[in-house]
Amino acid sequence: MNHFKINYFQYNSNSILISWPNSIDKHTLKDVLLFKYSIEENIKPLVEVISAYNSLLVVYDFTIDNIYSCISALKVCYNKKNKFVNKKNYVWKIPVCYEDQFAIDINLIANHLKLSKNEIINTHTNNDYLVYFMGFMPGFMYLGGLDKKIHFKRKSIPLLKVPKGSVAIGGSQTGIYPLESPGGWNIIGNSPIKLVNIDNCRIPIKPGDYIRFFSIDSNEYKRILNSTIEYFIEREVIDD
User: Fold this and answer.
1) Quick one: fold of 89-238?
2) Which of 35, 112, 101 is nearest to 74 (CA)?
3) Which of 111, 135, 176, 186 is 20 to 30 Å from 204 by CA-CA measure?
């Protein structure tokens, strides 16, 4: 397992920011997440450890009096991270309806990129997308791995209300809006499943997992949306 050159900074009175080289790739992310698991296992008390593309924010449940002591303990955790290398990650299979009533920007993208709607849909469903981190709102997943063929710039004027479940493209990324919110990504479909529990903001998907979208028609969309039984998201273990 590679060791990266990482840096430690005191972020505020009770947190430390750990940064990796400025690159967005799955090898850096794996190192970030292994370090995160090691910190959570070995350092107490903590409020939380927040991961991003190439950083960790370690939030302690106390005021940091000796930054050097804290950094020394973190470095010990980094050297222990390989014990978590076999932690399971999953591919989660998410249904999406790409029909026009949900895909309000797909024609714009198709015309600009000189692709058919079916080409956009087939391209979008043909990749597994790595979950880099959660941000912007509870359950919003920043996904990497979008085919360059369907990269498309964000809107110059964001929408005030993006519908819950919207599946969208923003530049080189794709993602799902788990709740209604403002947003500037281009909407190409909608998923009827519930990704966020409002009461506890928990979702089963985590950074390091993958998302695989598959297409459904509007009848199946309505069936899932109106079912009294919570949708079971299929998953499979991935050896990454």
Assistant:
1) Cyclophilin (2.40.100)
2) 35
3) 186
